[in-house]
Design brief:
Belongs to the metallo-dependent hydrolases superfamily. Phosphotriesterase family. A divalent metal cation 1 binds at residues 17, 19, 129, 247. A divalent metal cation 2 binds at residues 129, 162, 190. The protein is of the alpha/beta class. It has helices spanning 37-49, 67-77, 95-99, 102-114, 139-155, 169-178, 197-205, 223-235, 264-275, 280-294, and strands spanning 14-18, 54-57, 80-85, 124-132, 159-163, 186-188, 209-212, 242-244. The chain is globular. The relative contact order is 0.15. Helix 1 packs across helix 2 (67-77) and helix 4 packs across helix 5 (139-155). Strands 1-2-3-4-5-6-7-8 form an 8-stranded parallel sheet. The protein is built from 10 helices and 8 strands. The protein binds zinc ion (ZN). Zinc ion is lined by residues 129, 162, 189-190, 247.
């Protein structure tokens, strides 16, 4: 198959936490179902025109992952898409998470990494997004994290996490440490939803990456705060441990539906960083070098 999907050797400028076909609507909240592929292709084409080469699609089983649509969106827009394996968090887990043990769940992930997803040749190149609930790390979530740790140790692929409102990242790290995960292959996601900058430093001191990956979600945290916190982190020498993304999960966030669209990151957010004194070299580090390093490239 002639597809750009799944290349990790030439990532280029990369958004590390996105979704092309997510469906968290539970059949009630129609906005939380990204099912307008034409709108998505437009969004990807605009991104491409702004110089984004790759998106990492962290949609997994139970979240509406749809490999056939992912391939079509990638091929039609020319965006390289990296696929993921894993299970999201409690209330969104497929039955399998409750029925199978750690070893069986890790075998499932390893199969998607080594052989391909849903009988296609598209292989998962990252485990994620695997998550914790807001104030609880449930037993099923711990099971998924243990399975992810094992699959990571066998395959060497990185792990990217979901923290609800940026919380419990340190608990996630604790479990990874106990299970022998290489923390330099871990991205703790959504930390930019947590306003506590000391927490960022505690996570970073462990050696993992953090995701400033909800850029544009001003109702949670204003982007002006994201920008000033990024300045402080970069001043302390952490540019090499931060990755950027928007985590668009709703139709209303796309331009076709009146939203800001993913290109917002280059149209508005990066210019804001430059105005705040962050230089282009650091922006390229976060958007090009760090993704390449996470996926094992030099
Ligand atoms: Zn998430």
């Amino acid at each position: 198959m002639d597809t750009v999907l799944g290349k990790t050797d030439k990532l280029g400028r990369t958004l590390m936490h996105e979704h092309l076909t997510i469906d968290l609507s539970a059949k009630k909240d129609a906005d939380a179902n990204l099912n307008d592929d034409e709108a998505m292709i437009e969004d990807m084409e605009t991104l491409k025109a702004h110089g984004i080469d790759t998106i990492v699609d962290v949609t997994n089983l139970g979240m509406g992952r749809d490999i056939a649509r992912m391939i079509a969106i990638s091929e039609r827009s020319g965006i390289n898409v990296v696929a993921a394996t894993g299970f999201y968090k409690t209330t969104f887990f497929p039955k399998m998470v409750y029925e199978k043990n750690v070893e069986e769940l890790s075998t499932f992930m390893i199969n998607e990494i080594v052989n391909g997803i849903d009988k296609t040749e598209i292989k998962a190149r990252i485990i994620g997004e695997i998550g914790t609930s807001q104030d609880a790390f449930t037993n099923e979530e711990k099971k998924v994290f243990q399975a992810a740790a094992y699959a990571h140790k066998i395959t060497g692929v990185p792990i990217t996490t979901h923290t609800t409102l940026g919380k419990l990242g340190l608990k996630q790290i604790e479990l990874f440490e106990k299970n022998g995960v290489d923390l330099e292959k871990v991205i703790i996601g959504h930390v930019d939803l947590n306003p506590d900058i000391d927490y960022y430093f505690k996570v970073l001191e462990k050696g993992c990456y953090i995701g400033f990956d909800t850029i544009g979600k001003n109702s949670y945290q204003p982007d002006t705060l994201r920008a000033s916190n990024l300045c402080k982190l970069i001043e302390r020498g952490y540019a090499s441990r931060i990755v950027l993304s928007l985590d668009i999960t709703r139709k209303s966030q796309l331009k076709k539906y009146g939203g800001y669209g993913r290109s917002y990151i280059l149209e508005s957010f990066v210019p804001m960083l430059l105005r705040n004194g962050i230089n282009q070299k650091d922006i390229d580090m976060m958007m090009i070098e760090n993704p390449r390093r996470v996926f094992g490239g030099r």
